[in-house]
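>> received
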Amino acid sequence: MGRMVLLTCNSNQPLANKISNDIGVPLAACAVKRFADGEIFVEIGQNVRGADVFVIQSTCPPVNDNLMELLITIDALKRASAASITAVVPYFGYARQDRKVHPRTPITAKLVADLISVSGASRVVTMELHSGQIQGFFDIPFDNIFASPVLLNHLTREYCLPKTVQAPDLVVVSPDAGGVERARAYAKRLNAKVAMIDKRRTAPNEARVMNIVGSVEGCRAIILDDMIDTAGTLVKAAEAIIAHGAVEVSAAATHPVFSGPAIERIQESSLKEVIVTDTIQLRENAAKCSKIKVLSVSSILAEAIRRINNYDSVSSLFV
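>> returned
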């Protein structure tokens, strides 16, 4: 076990503080500054020579600024002779660009993987990758951990515990075919049914719900996804589920990206509540939205960091 050093940049200071408190290791001083022309400058405020350093930084909006902060911080640590540098990236930006969807287009997730590796990272830890195959873009150790223990604990407590009045059946709904495996895993733990939404995407960030595969009539539905971006798909999915006879609809997702009109759409929708985690720090309007419930994943990330530092198994967290 090496000497552990924790530090963070600017993307999610509240989450970094919680992780620091959970582990019992204070955050190291790290000054992130900007020159007049917008260039980023990072200065580490303590000795890290020979230390195992964990940099906590989501590459969430503003994605490019937060990514550059991470890369420059890793470079500074490498030049300061850190023994190992683990990039803890709760939300991995550019993960949706993981393949060529048209001729002459990039695979930006692979480019970001190369940048993080070349900058000097020894290991990467992230949560709920949008595409699991991105792990293969890295030639360094990579841990993709899950928010399921936190989300399942909340869903079990709020939706499954015995009530004085017999509650309707519970159904976990995947918003697309790619999320069915995740929905099935949650449904098994919640003793719920599974359904899927067949949608046709007409343009980026726009989707039209076409059909529901499975029965939701008379049920309480939980739409389960890895992230919520503009909430267009989510709101239309909720409308379709209600139209097919569901009693109520809630949603659960790990990453609250909440771009553009997402909050307004959620507030005006038929959704009962939207459960998310703190991998991304909410903007002020999102934090004030009465339908949004935020759960913290700091304890899971802290335990993963502790196990990596102790050379223990990380995968056994989710057995």
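>> The radius of gyration is 20 Å.
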